[in-house]
Amino acid sequence: MATGLFGNKYQQAVDNEAIQRRQLSQTGGLTGWAAITQGMANIGSELGYQGGQMFGGQTPAQVQQANYQAVIDSVPNFDPMDPASLQEMSSAMWQGGFYDEGMAFMDRSQDITSANLQNDLIKSQLEPKEKELTVTEQIAFDKAQRIKEAAELVKGMSRKTSADMEAVSKVLEDAGYTDTPEYKNLRTNLTTTKGVELTTRRDIQTDIEQEEKIEREIKIKAMGEVMDRGEGPNIVGGVFLRDKPDTGSATKTIALQKQIGGVLQSYDGILSKRGLDSKVTPAEAYPYYDKVFNLPEVYQGNSGIDFKFKPYEFDSAELNLALDTIFGVGNLFVPQEKLKSYLDNGLLIPGVTNVFNVSTGEVEVYNP
Length: 368
Known about the structure:
Number of domains: 3
Number of strands: 4
Helix content: 55-70%
Shape: elongated
Number of helices: 15
Radius of gyration: 40 Å
Strand order of the largest sheet: 1-2
Structural class: mainly alpha
């Protein structure tokens, strides 16, 4: 009766699946051997479906229909003309997760209650005025009036979320209608809704925590060292090609190359150990190891200095400081007087490197 009264879209979904299977069993206009081949293939598909059904397999539509029917069966002796029975079915639907159907049963209950009250009111108005109501009749009449007034008071108010239901409850409580079916049924559904929302929030929180865990694991994995043995000196060798130091001999130049390359190699290891505290991974930092040597405070070969007394300049402390600054470590930032040099050499990383903004007088993250 319940499915006939309110319709059953879940059974319709199962019927639609059957129609689609029957359509697939046709030959699609083919003739001869092609039609026979197509027909046999479709028969095999149908036999597979029937076999799955025999062993208890169900399609998603059949699972949904079975769940819906289980809720219907959980309310024995259901009477679609009894508001109380409709309210009971409404609560069962809510607890089973069929919220739209639950609201439909609730609306039906309220409609019948309102219609019964209207009939009682009309009947009482048609009775002779001089007739006195008995105490029992007066109590019943007053109760019916209160039920109608409560329903009218909150008519049209949303009940989709627990917050909505709390608002409706507050209106009924303030007006003194806590003894009416409208209020009692609402509180029952409110408890169910809060449980559903709590479960949903927990699921969402679990998903967020899982995503954060995966991101942390990815970041930790990405923080592994990227430089192979001897790669630091190779980078420095490229620097020497464009600005060669005058060490006096090839042997000394090779030794200097290894020394500076060792500093770079060490920095790669230091950066790796920063883990989640680092704003960049070693792989993201790698392209800047070559460019940082363009800063005059870090390295100068024979160009731009008096090589008769100082054939080259290299400062390992300045190298580490520049790299930390580029990668936004701690409170380090590029001062105004060095901003052009860092910018010209492509050493500012958007969203990472801190710079001094002369316009605002504050340190800000670099944003082109």
